[in-house]
């Protein structure tokens, strides 16, 4: 599986440093608020798990599975909820945790949903931001790092459900997904 990687963008040590920085910012901003942390499955699970372990405040966790990719490398443009939240967001401070903000379609959709469900506040934390691909005008409140317009995998991110378990984030060789 490592042979399928063109180059490593962020090592496990790089990711750990990013998470510590983000956790400090989030802990400060949410002091005494008990936010509902919403992990967007499956890609953000590794990031969310490591992030919440670094937070100094009480948090509640919930999970949502949303897809616009399937097994493709390009968004279909249609956002589909596969698994909804078990917890009400009404009156809650919500922190959406994403692996990557790419086109912005999924994030725009989620923010709209949580607003209609009367969330008190909605903020977004993303490990990676890919602004060159943005179609919808959305910005994350907490950004780990920006990534180039390349197909990245690892640390939760996949191609056709593979590579999620890599401990780093790397660029997938084009011949892997072009075949």
Automatic annotation (TrEMBL):
<keyword id="KW-0479">Metal-binding</keyword>
<keyword id="KW-0808">Transferase</keyword>
<comment type="function">
    <text>Purine salvage pathway enzyme that catalyzes the transfer of the ribosyl-5-phosphate group from 5-phospho-alpha-D-ribose 1-diphosphate (PRPP) to the N9 position of the 6-oxopurines hypoxanthine and guanine to form the corresponding ribonucleotides IMP (inosine 5'-monophosphate) and GMP (guanosine 5'-monophosphate), with the release of PPi.</text>
</comment>
<keyword id="KW-0547">Nucleotide-binding</keyword>
<comment type="similarity">
    <text>Belongs to the purine/pyrimidine phosphoribosyltransferase family.</text>
</comment>
<protein>
    <recommendedName>
        <fullName>Hypoxanthine phosphoribosyltransferase</fullName>
        <ecNumber>2.4.2.8</ecNumber>
    </recommendedName>
</protein>
<feature type="domain" description="Phosphoribosyltransferase">
    <location>
        <begin position="11"/>
        <end position="159"/>
    </location>
</feature>
<keyword id="KW-0328">Glycosyltransferase</keyword>
<dbReference type="InterPro" id="IPR000836">
    <property type="entry name" value="PRTase_dom"/>
</dbReference>
<dbReference type="InterPro" id="IPR050408">
    <property type="entry name" value="HGPRT"/>
</dbReference>
<dbReference type="GO" id="GO:0016757">
    <property type="term" value="F:glycosyltransferase activity"/>
</dbReference>
<keyword id="KW-0963">Cytoplasm</keyword>
<keyword id="KW-0460">Magnesium</keyword>
<keyword id="KW-0660">Purine salvage</keyword>
<dbReference type="Pfam" id="PF00156">
    <property type="entry name" value="Pribosyltran"/>
</dbReference>
<dbReference type="InterPro" id="IPR029057">
    <property type="entry name" value="PRTase-like"/>
</dbReference>
<dbReference type="InterPro" id="IPR005904">
    <property type="entry name" value="Hxn_phspho_trans"/>
</dbReference>
<comment type="pathway">
    <text>Purine metabolism; IMP biosynthesis via salvage pathway; IMP from hypoxanthine: step 1/1.</text>
</comment>
<comment type="pathway">
    <text>Purine metabolism; GMP biosynthesis via salvage pathway; GMP from guanine: step 1/1.</text>
</comment>
């Amino acid at each position: 599986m490592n042979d399928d990687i063109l180059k490593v963008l962020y090592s496990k040590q790089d990711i750990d440093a990013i998470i510590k920085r983000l956790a400090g910012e989030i802990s400060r901003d949410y002091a005494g608020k008990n936010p509902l942390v919403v992990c967007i499955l499956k890609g953000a699970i590794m990031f969310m798990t490591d992030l919440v372990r670094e937070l100094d405040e009480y948090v509640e966790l919930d999970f949502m599975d949303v897809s616009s990719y399937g097994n493709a490398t390009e968004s279909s443009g249609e956002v589909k909820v596969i698994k909804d939240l078990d917890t009400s967001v009404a009156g809650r401070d919500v922190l959406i945790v994403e692996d990557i903000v790419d086109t912005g379609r999924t994030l725009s959709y989620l923010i709209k949903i949580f607003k209609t469900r009367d969330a008190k506040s909605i903020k977004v934390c993303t490990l990676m931001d890919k602004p060159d691909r943005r179609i919808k005008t959305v910005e994350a409140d907490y950004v780990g790092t920006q990534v180039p317009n390349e197909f990245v995998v690892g640390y939760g991110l996949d191609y056709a459900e593979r590579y999620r378990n890599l401990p780093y984030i790397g660029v997938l060789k084009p011949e892997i997904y072009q075949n």
